[in-house]
Amino acid sequence: MSELVELFARFSGQLWTGTVITVQITAVGLLLGFLIGLPTALIRVYGGPWVRWIAVLYTELFRGTPVLVQLFIVYFGLPDLGITLSRLAAAYIAMGLNSGAYQAEYFRGAIQSIGSGQMRAARAIGMSRLKAIRYIILPQALRLVIPAWSNEPVALMKTSAVAFLIAVPDLMGQGKIIAARTYDPITSYLAVAIIYIALVALLMLGLQWLEQRLRIPGTEVEVQRV
Amino acid sequence: MAETLIRVQNLRKIYGDKTVLKDISLDILEGDTVVLIGPSGTGKSTLLRCMNLLTKPDGGSIWFDGEEITAPGVNEDRVRTHIGMVFQDFLLFNHLSALDNVAIGLTKVLGMDKAAATEKALRELDYVGLEEHADKYPGQLSGGQKQRVAIARALAMDPRVMLFDEPTSALDPELIGEVLATMERLSNEGMTMVCVTHEMGFAREVADKIIFMEGGVVVEEGPPQQMFAAAQIPRTREFLGKITELYGDHE
Amino acid sequence: MGSAALPTSANMLNTFLYVAQGLLVALEVIAIALPLGFVLGVLLAILRVYGGRFIAPLVGFYRAVLRGVPPVVLLFLLYFVVAGAVNLSPLWAGALSLGIISSAYQLEIFRGAFGSVSSGQMTAARAIGMNRSKAIRYIILPQALRLAIPPWSNEAATVIKDSSLVYALGVPEILRRAQFVSANTREPFIAFGAAALLYFVMTFVAGRLLDFVENKTAIPGEVGG
Question: What does pTM read for this prediction?
Fold first, then answer.
């Protein structure tokens, strides 16, 4: 127990740096995932057969393969195509692509549950498809998706830990360094685990708060919290 | 002189701040068919569930076949093998066929071997007129059929008494008849029955005794002819009058 | 590392075959982790739902800890804890850890499934004289397991993918072999592409298999369960 406290005190700087990087990767990955996932979902629901096929391929591939493999392909593969990448950038891209596939599924579910009636009503007053999506479907879908979507930031934060395997100095990466310095892997990784638990708890509280603020009265949806 | 099979003494049951059963005392004689009537929410179902210990009373005692079943240390599971219960929402085991629904108590509770259990289960299903549907699943049966399977399931355990908790309330009107017919047959063959029901026709024709409950107590009890024609207490007359008007005479 | 010859030229087939030899190792890890997670998950779900006032929060704590930490962190932690006490190969340590982690997620799945089985089923079971454990075993559990198949299918896919994490413990499974080849042939896309393909096939096959099981165990007459 006392070794744990000692470790926290001695390596607080490194642990903090690692935490910051983990949060960074999560945030950037989440944002990228949103920017990729939402259009993908829209394409899957409203797109023509060829584009839709690409969207399906993307989501199936990135949800059906391990994130670690995806990370390695990005980090080791892209330089081959002439794109040089820092480790952190590779992590951002891999997490973004991975999260995008999962977010696409969440959004697709929400859009589809809005029901075709809304689209029909919008077209009936003369809106183009694009306008209908933008002003009628999306506002509802984005509100509806919140309970299910809020599984994603937590999942992504936990997923991001694999970045240390390409020597990104995130929280887990710091843990590895500290373990090497102290020759005490158990206490080191225990410290890392505790910080993750705290981060996840904070994240969950934040998401709950967000959910409360954005709720539309009368549209409570029962969703399985994963 | 018929034996008292169930004796309820000063039973009390409280839910939160509501006293559902205040002070219930009654006797069920062996071979009798007793119908419990009264306004909704007056604890009739609760009383029934206390009788087979699905609900624990907060006061008073219940005696079954001379044994106090509300005493501490009583094996409730054993008691429940002698008391059959039929529920308003049938509660058939969804993952089992009609046959297996009836047989499972025989094999897993009474330890019968599979062949004997299957044979007995088929006999019980035949009794309620559903032998040909033995391999059907609850999802494939009508409400009336489901309830008759439920009756067969309870009968298979060879209970001393059958408790019916509003057995026809969840059924479409056309399906009520088949269930009541089964219940009447049981009654005529001498089964001891306690029924909570609104079916006044059944009460009038089949019951040996009618007990009127309200406000957590027994208001009045007596044979059907007496209760329907000349109940002593005004409230009883009032209730019986209204409910006969509403539900009519089912035969 | 392994019995196949190490490819030095960009020969796709050779690369694939080399990487594919890690498949057996990966399957070994999954074959340990998934059933372990299942047995623990069902038991813990029963404890959580039927266990009473003192046990339920303990299970809740177990769940919160195992789900609040990234799997790879837990993998390392459990590996070192276990390696200190017992002499286990990295494969076994990794697989057991993955199984324990999965049990926390499977526990939620089964808990939800138990909740979906209506309480009336327990009542009816007690009414014919079954005690609690018989009722759980013969009435509740069969129905709950059927309801659990779709979400369990997701969890199985997750375990299959997370098996790649034992890479971090040095286990010579698919990903490690792919990395080795990639470094040697300087053809990362082919090497990791092969790895990705293998994992994808595993998750795909698992999904179809479970669809088959779901159809086979469906209760006639039930519309969508």
Answer: 0.82
